[in-house]
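Lest this sound abstract, we think one record worth quoting, the chain in one-letter code, the fold tokenised, each line plainly labelled:

>
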Amino acid sequence: MNEVRQFMRARAAALAAGTGAVVLALGGIAIALAPAALADGTVITGNQTCSQQIPNSTELKVEPVASGTYTDGTLTVVVTVRTLAADDLAHPGDQTGSQVFDFTATGGVVLGVVVKGGPNANFYDYRPAGVTAGTGLHAPVIGSQNNDKFYGLSHISFCYGPAPSPSPSPTPTPSETPSPKLRGR
């Protein structure tokens, strides 16, 4: 069983680095895995802000972290906090019981998210285009002393910019059809 678990973790980790979905077939059981772009973010030290990570961005800070709708009058973010019911195979240890969250945003484009937990934070960088949704974001991993669980969620900072303007529709060119000829009277 341990070999199967190690194999599944290795496949999930490889998937996190790729761009396509994979279906694993083990002992007659098929498991579909979706791509996990930026699955872990990058660990940053201390209690950094959006302006430190993305100069000229605006920050919407959520503290304490709980499921709900948050706004600063420009950006509105719906946050859904979940507790993992099963181990996250992309990490060593067992993250069962750790908190992760999903979000959707309107009114701007999220360029990055700082997820604080413990002494450090995870920074999810969505530049240059930004995103309006994300899934499975989490604080850094505690470490082997606590079976590699994720730290609890202290606060979340959404670093955002204005929503992109829709591209103007191209101006239609005048038709080249000849105008009807008038018959003389």
User: Anything to note?
Assistant: Residues 1-37 form one domain.
